[in-house]
Structure formats: structure tokens, C-alpha cells
Design goal:
This protein has 325 residues and is an alpha/beta fold. The protein has helices at 42-49, 115-135, 152-163, 175-183, 197-204, 222-226, 251-255, 266-269, 273-288, 305-313, and strands spanning 3-7, 17-20, 30-39, 59-60, 64-72, 84-88, 98-102, 107-108, 143-146, 167-172, 188-191, 210-215, 229-237, 260-262, 296-301, 320-324. It starts with a strand and ends with a strand. The structure holds NADP nicotinamide-adenine-dinucleotide phosphate. NADP nicotinamide-adenine-dinucleotide phosphate (NAP) binds at residues 41-43, 123-124, 127, 148, 150-154, 172-173, 177, 216-217, 220, 238-242, 264-266, 312-313, 315, 317. NADP nicotinamide-adenine-dinucleotide phosphate binds next to helix 1, helix 2, helix 3 and helix 10.
Length: 325
């Protein structure tokens, strides 16, 4: 019987259990998939801890994977057994050797993109696609600030923004991360555990501030990030690696220069099938052309997912991580 990682109660990494699961035949609009690589994402830790409630317990976990179609439901016309596919989508349950997925939530993989690359980039890469191309359209010549620039989202964002002609300022947690961020297009890494990033951003922009901040760190960086923005700048708060941003007085946005604020999620930006396909094609294109290089920096056996969570939460990982069934 295939196995999957599941959890019966929320909590620390130890709640993740390796269990046999019944997969069954696909319903009319589903495919059954043999998974070859699974993506690790920070959101998985939010589901595990209960920060983002899951529909019910016990629950599967994980939103990203790649593999081979084994069977298709009777209404599925555009996929067949043997096709290589990938996804970054609900329902939870990608930490599995085999699973069912709604056919409308997966995309076929081009020959040039391996299963492991796909599992390393689908969720983080589609996120960067909407952040840079749709939440706000990045213009050549702009200077941006991205937090956790050496993270999974961070390394993709630095490269893609550089490719679009931006200057990238990025915060990082260590000298090693600074060097890797720099190799991936971050022009000005800032060691935010020892340096005041607001002062550095003001210095680097001649006092002007940046037009946009991409902040997946949350609680620790949200307020100071507002001080990095130019008047009418956009604060994109898209994650909470350090904890959720507490409620705050909206008047702060007016006092700091009529700022804009958004709290986006990939779910909204890929809800329509045509948006999912267009975003995936955009991502495949920049990767295919070598403008964005996807490196798998950490690999764990799927059954050791708890250790992967410990390392991610301890800020030990750099770039993308995959779990191998
Ligand atoms: N809204 C969306 O659509 C969307 C989609 C994808 C991801 N996200 C969010 O984007 C963020 C990055 O996701 P990711 O999967 O690529 O993770 P990641 O960036 O690879 O890992 C998180 C990084 O955050 C930094 N960090 C700062 N304070 C931290 C703390 N107290 N605890 C742990 N880490 C801390 C660490 O980098 P340093 O050591 O360099 O500080 C750490 O490596 C997450 O918040 C995630 O939820 C949002």
C-alpha cells in the first residue's frame, strides 16, 4: 500500500506521521498520480502548527508535487497515463507516494523541465510570477526590497526581478546566504540580523525609498518595511515566516506617505484555469531560457519530512527543498 505523511493533531514537526493510505480510483474529473518529487514550502508549517486551519483532522499535508499520471477519470480528456505533470494547489496531501488530484489543477511538464525541478519551483515560482507580473508590474530600472532573499521564493524572485531589469535589495540571515543571494541577482544583500535594514535601504536609494517591498517574513519585518517605501509605495505582505503581522492602525499608511498594502495569496491568482496555465507557461519560459535557474539545495526522503520542517523553521535551508517519495 502507498504511504503518505499525515498528522492527527496540530503541533511541532513530530506530529508528522508516515502512514499507509488507500488511494483508490480517480473520480470523473480526477487523475491518479505516482509522485516522483514533492515540494517543501513554508505554508506546510502553517498547516502543521494550525496557524492556517486545515479542513479536517487527521489530514494530509503539502500543496506541491510532480510525477506521472497513472489513471484518469472518465471526463478527463487532455491527460493520459504516462504524462508527466506538476501542480501547486489544494487539496492538501502532496506529501504522498501516490494521490488523487483534480485534473484541472495540474499542468503538463515540458520535456526540458525535470520532475525534481518542477517540484522545487511550482509553488514558489508561480508566486514570484504573480508578485512581479500581476500584483504590480515591475518596471526595468526600479529598485525593490525583498525579504528572505536567499529563501525558496527569494532566490527565484531575485533572479526574475534582475531579468526584468530591476535593482534588487535583499535581506538575508547570514553571510553564506548573502553570498548565494548575490549569485542569484541580489545586488545589495543586507544582513538584517545585525544591520538596520531601513537605514541601509534609505542609503542605497539616496533617501528616496523603494516603490515596492516583498515581505514573506511578516511580524519581524512588517513595520520597518513601511519605512523603506517611497510615497505611494506598495507593501506586499505575502507570508509570516516570523509570525503573523498583528492588527494595526490603518492611519499609519497615510502618515507614512499614502502607502498601498496588499496581502495576496497564490490561490486567488491561480483560481481560474486560464490564469494557472498562463502563469505556468510564463514560469516555464524564464526557466527554459535560463533567466531563472532552479537549484534543489536540500533533498530529504519523504518519510523524513519532520526533519525538513525542523530545518526550514530553524532558517537552515537555502533556496528550494524537495522531498523524495
Ligand atoms: N502568499 C503566497 O502566495 C505565498 C506563496 C509562497 C510562499 N509564501 C510565503 O513566502 C515566505 C517564503 O516561503 P518559502 O517557502 O520560500 O520559505 P523560505 O523563504 O525558504 O524560508 C523562510 C525564510 O524566512 C526567513 N526568516 C526570517 N525570520 C524567520 C523566523 N523567525 N523563522 C523562520 N524563518 C525566518 C529565513 O531566512 P533568513 O535566515 O535569510 O532570514 C528563512 O529561511 C513564507 O512566509 C511563505 O509562507 C506566500
Amino acid at each position: 500500500m502507498p504511504h503518505a505523511i499525515r498528522f492527527h493533531e496540530t503541533g511541532g514537526p513530530d506530529v508528522l506521521r508516515w502512514e499507509p493510505v488507500e488511494v483508490g480510483a480517480p473520480a470523473a474529473d480526477q487523475i491518479r498520480l505516482r509522485q516522483t518529487a514533492v515540494g517543501l514550502n513554508y505554508i506546510d508549517t502553517y498547516h502543521r502548527t494550525g496557524l492556517y486551519p486545515v479542513p479536517k483532522l487527521p489530514s494530509g499535508i503539502g500543496l506541491e508535487g510532480a510525477g506521472v499520471v497513472e489513471a484518469v477519470g472518465e471526463d478527463v480528456k487532455d491527460l493520459k497515463p504516462g504524462d508527466r505533470i506538476a501542480y501547486a494547489s489544494a487539496p492538501l496531501g502532496s506529501y504522498a507516494e501516490s494521490r488523487l488530484m483534480p485534473a484541472g489543477r495540474v499542468v503538463k511538464l515540458p520535456d526540458g523541465i525535470s520532475d525534481q525541478t518542477a517540484a522545487a519551483m511550482m509553488l514558489q515560482g508561480l508566486t514570484v510570477q504573480y508578485l512581479l507580473r500581476r500584483t504590480r508590474r515591475l518596471q526595468a530600472g526600479e529598485t525593490i526590497l525583498v525579504h528572505a532573499a536567499a529563501g525558496g521564493v527569494g532566490l527565484i524572485l531575485c533572479q526574475w526581478a534582475k531579468h526584468l531589469g530591476a535593482t534588487v535589495i535583499g535581506t538575508v540571515g547570514s553571510e553564506e546566504k548573502a553570498a548565494i543571494a548575490r549569485e542569484h541577482g541580489c545586488d545589495h544583500p543586507i544582513l538584517y540580523r545585525s544591520e538596520n535594514f531601513v537605514d541601509r535601504v534609505r542609503d542605497l536609494t539616496g533617501g528616496a525609498g523603494v516603490p515596492v517591498v516583498y515581505d514573506g517574513v511578516g511580524k519581524d519585518t512588517f513595520m520597518p518595511s513601511l519605512d523603506c517605501l517611497a510615497p505611494l509605495g506598495l507593501m506586499v505582505s505575502f507570508g509570516n515566516a516570523s509570525g503573523s503581522v498583528p492588527p494595526f492602525d490603518l492611519g499609519i499608511l497615510s502618515a507614512k506617505g499614502s502607502l498601498f498594502l496588499t496581502r495576496p495569496t497564490l490561490v486567488t491568482y491561480t483560481a481560474k484555469r486560464e490564469d494557472l496555465v498562463a502563469s505556468a507557461n510564463d514560469l516555464f519560459d524564464v526557466v527554459d531560457r535560463g533567466a531563472v535557474k532552479i537549484t534543489v539545495n536540500q533533498t530529504y526522503p519523504l518519510r523524513d519530512a519532520a526533519q525538513a520542517h525542523r530545518d526550514l523553521e530553524a532558517r537552515k535551508t537555502i533556496g528550494s527543498t524537495i522531498l523524495l517519495p
